[in-house]
Amino acid sequence: MEERKIILKTGWNFNNSYANLPELFFERQSLTHVDSPKLIILNDHLTAYLGLNVQALQSSDGVAVLAGNQMPKGALPLSQAYAGHQFGHFTMLGDGRALLLGEQITPKDERVDIQLKGSGRTPYSRGGDGRATLGSMLREYIISEAMYALGIPTTRSLAVVTTGEPVFRETKLPGAVLTRVAASHLRVGTFQYAAEWGTVEELRALADYALKRHFSDGDGAENRYLCLLQEVIKRQAALIAKWQLVGFIHGVMNTDNVSISGETIDYGPCAFMDNYDPATVFSSIDRQGRYAYGNQPYIAGWNLARFAETLLPLLHDNKEKATQLAENAIAEFTQLYHSNWLSGMRTKLGIFNEEPEDEILIENLLNMMQKYDADYTNTFRALTFDKFSDMTLFDTESFTIWHKKWQERLYRQEESKDCSIELMKSSNPEIIPRNHRVEEALYAAEKNGDYSVMKKLLDVLSNPYAHSNEQAGYTALPEKSTCPYRTFCGT
Ligand code: AMP
Ligand code: MG
Known about the structure:
Pfam families: SelO. ATP binds at residues 94, 96-97, 117, 129-130, 180, 187, 266. It is an enzyme of class 2 (transferase). The active site is at 256 (proton acceptor). Strands 1, 3, 7, 8, 9, 10 and 11 form a 7-stranded antiparallel beta sheet that branches. The chain has a two-stranded antiparallel sheet with strand order 2-4. A two-stranded antiparallel sheet has the order 5-6. The chain is 44% helix and 13% strand. It contains 17 helices and 13 strands. The protein has helices at 2-7, 44-50, 54-58, 60-66, 134-149, 188-197, 200-214, 224-246, 296-315, 319-348, 358-371, 376-385, 397-411, 417-425, 435-448, 452-461, 469-472, and strands spanning 14-15, 26-28, 38-42, 78-80, 83-86, 89-92, 98-105, 111-117, 132-133, 156-168, 172-182, 248-249, 271-272. By secondary structure, it is of the alpha+beta class. The chain is globular and about 65 Å long. Magnesium ion (MG) is lined by residues 256-257, 266.
């Protein structure tokens, strides 16, 4: 009996540092009960990292926690306040359908937020029902875990449970709760909220908290708040470059969806690009293409400028000097982004050293890909394995000329061809969560209660650089369709 108890200890190890911030930043919450929670998927690897016990989480008590029906020991549920620019318009937001249970201190002594998404109404819900649909939560689970496996900083998904309650969208859909794990949920929008509605001291408390939680307290920096700004800029530059390099389109890069920790957050209308085209947009509400693939680096710069504005009172007592410091920091972003992107592109082409002409070589390839409607991921896969079939691009004279130049470039470096191939294999994924494959998995899950398609997909996505035979079956493109793929927000 005693032993059984030990085995079933879940391992929650909460601390609640966010709740020590001024009250302006959150509302304490009680749990909203749901009818009949059922565990749909649990992330075994993440469970281990968090120091949690799989069997305990699978038990009825464990599932009750994941559904928001039961409070785990040490949790202090709250919803966080934040604001944000949504498609350029500033507005008050906050966790309208999420609950921060607390921060789990992992066995490696790391601190991560445990948040329930779809957990019910909060004071920030506005007109919303506080709920989420099974399809959209599974979609976030699949894509966030795929991003993690691709080596891209991201929030992660611990579990999805269904609530047994319907959610009303255009039709009646099953409701679900996702357990999201994040380095933190501090957003540019949290700072905008503080700057707009808080005192300078409340803003300072938030900045100090962010510095302590993510940036070693700004140790050694002459101006800690400038250090905060510079570090956030650096992380966003690295993050957005990684998105571009795999063809990820976030879809709703509002300032409330920009994480201070530098993780990808809020998987709403996101999707991966098939054929290379900078104008690619999937989101049904992004009619102007504000968040198109090719625009993402510019929008990131715009969002960071909004972040810099919030810090002005902390950067310097003199307003002009503060503005100058902020402008100088923001001016760095473009260059930082570009050098991250360029070095990433070099690795995708198996290039180890730097030559000034590299950028032209890369641009020429991208231009050809656009001209001949070439699939982004599969082009780099073909270059990696020297297998050129199935694409118009490869039959063109311009590609033949480009290929020769690329080969000459590789011969000019010290590293062998084999080293180049290895570098390309680890830089060019065999598989990305292609839209039609994600839809196929969600359809089986939602319509037929069949989760095997999704589990198989998650399995092949979990090691995208393995280049296994099993994965090769997932590289096929969707049938040409007359209506473009569309994604939807906040469902
Ligand atoms: P998002 O588009 O997911 O970044 O969400 C934007 C804002 O809308 C956030 O404040 C969310 O909490 C809120 N929101 C999204 N869906 C709902 C919902 N079903 N009920 C209440 N609030 C929601
Ligand atoms: Mg959001």
